[in-house]
Amino acid sequence: MAETRAGAGRRTKLTVVGAGSVGTAVAYACLLRGSADVIALYDIQAAKVRAEVLDLNHGTQFAPACRIEGSDDLAVTAGSDLIVVTAGAKQHPDQSRLDLAAANVTLVRELIPHLLSASPGAVIVVVSNPVDVVTYAAIAATGITDGRIFGSGTVLDSGRLRYLVAARAGVAVENVHGFVVGEHGDSEVALWSGTTIGGVPVDSFRVDGRAVFGQQVRTELFEQVVRSAYEIIRGKGATNLAIGLSTARIVEAVLRDQRRVLAVSTLQTGRPGLEEVCLSLPTIVDAGGARTVLDVPMSDTEAAGLAASAATLRQVQTSLGL
Fold this sequence. Notes:
Layout: E1 13-17, H1 21-33, E2 38-42, H2 46-57, E3 67-71, E4 82-85, H3 101-118, E5 123-126, H4 131-142, E6 149-151, H5 155-169, E7 176-177, E8 180-181, E9 189-190, E10 196-197, E11 200-201, E12 206-207, E13 210-211, H6 215-236, H7 241-255, E14 260-267, E15 278-286, E16 289-293, H8 300-319
Helix pairs in contact: 1-7, 3-4, 4-8, 5-6
């Protein structure tokens, strides 16, 4: 596995599979942030991937040093330290992520073994929706259960929640800490009981002596989190910029061995009732992939919501023969 970018002169290689709106946003975000030394873009549409690689390369002089390459030949992915999979059917307006399951499950079952054949030591991050079910299918297809294959999960959903809380509280988003867990989709759960603003529990946060985050406000904010993707898709056809940035953060946690706590989707083995399903909980991410899932305290209502989210995902998996 790759060392940190500063270690021993080791050059890190990231491959992004899929040159659609999400894949190119991931590559662009990683280029701007200097996330990897080499970024390879793979897509079966030769003209599209060539055009995207040209466009990215034309901007390399304005970003941290990085080599950009791409092809419709799977050989371009060889020697990757980290592979981000974004390829798959596109979500349409008002279509749930779970509706995409069958097509994208079939794709990863066929694709990921070939990717690992070209890059045997690579960490795989699945972004294709529905990310939890697709991640489970990828793990089942390869037998890799040690966290080297995981999904982007609710990292973006947690970011959406923090943005909304920060805006309502009138503070910088960096001062808000909290997680959305469970499915990356309609059954996800906000862990309000552990959300803090500058170290102050959200229930206790006040402005001019007035409580800001009552139950009604929390319900409204979380509804915005859940429905925001649908709004973006209706308005511009796809969500891509924020998922590009949030995926870049995941990429850096792996390639730089940061041991960062992120709400990524992993094969659950700890909490009772969550076994044999991939969903998101705060997890330590390092050079080896998704490592320790933290035993996060949650209220009885939150725990029940998480169990219901797991049941929803398990039902989809069963319907697909997983």
